[in-house]
Amino acid sequence: MEELKRVVRPGGILVLSVPAFNWLWGRHDDLNNHYRRYDFGELIHSKNCFSEANRYILVQDQGVEQPDIESSLGMPALNSVLYLVGSTRAGKVNAMCCSSVTQVTYCSAKVAVAVNKNNLTHDYIKESGVFSLSALGQNQGHMAHYFGRNSGRQMNKFASFKYKRGKTGSPIIEGCPDYYDCQVDHRATIDLDTHTLFVDRVMDASSDSEEPLLTYRDYARDVRNLINDPNMSQRTV
Ligand SMILES: Cc1cc2nc3c(=O)[nH]c(=O)nc-3n(C[C@H](O)[C@H](O)[C@H](O)COP(=O)(O)O)c2cc1C
Is residue 237 in a domain? Predict the structure, then answer.
């Protein structure tokens, strides 16, 4: 972005065509050797390169692989509760937002979680064999956005959020209504090509909060405001 700013004349127009939103990562990106996908806010505000610009025009790509945000949020996704999936490696912690979480057996308590192989959290879970689920409350859309639009590969997401360690050592995020502390059942782990489906035994939980939980649909409703908030995209480009 710094170099682009250098070569654009004052008052000039910069047209950027980039793959949008890291959470839309898929096979298409692997095939095209993409390095990462981008958020509008983070591009504009990265390193304050274009912070003085006050007019942006966002042109939507009509291609099949980059659906507009409402249809991509509304169409394929069940209206699941959103969780922060946290894990640990060599003393470090990381967490990401996740909608693909479901209970699979009640006794013994087991849950399944689908995690994209490109995510840092995936590496942590694969190596440590443990993770936590922190359920998000309805007033925590900003946390879904922050943990779901930034990667621990580029920043320490826990610089601004507190946590405690669960029994497995996984981070349980402070302020979340419910949590589940889980150990991976390696016999039941399934390779889904782009994702891994981790099936896990719940080792410890606190799940009796009566606070309403945040769903995918709640998040989809608020996402445009979150995207346009420069404080929400802190990853350096
Ligand atoms: C609402 C929402 C739901 C998401 N659901 C999933 C999911 O089910 N599985 C997944 O792998 N990534 C999901 N993501 C994307 C990850 O949270 C995102 O790629 C994150 O940046 C990964 O962070 P990490 O690299 O630090 O692990 C979701 C993101 C959002 C905003």
Answer: no
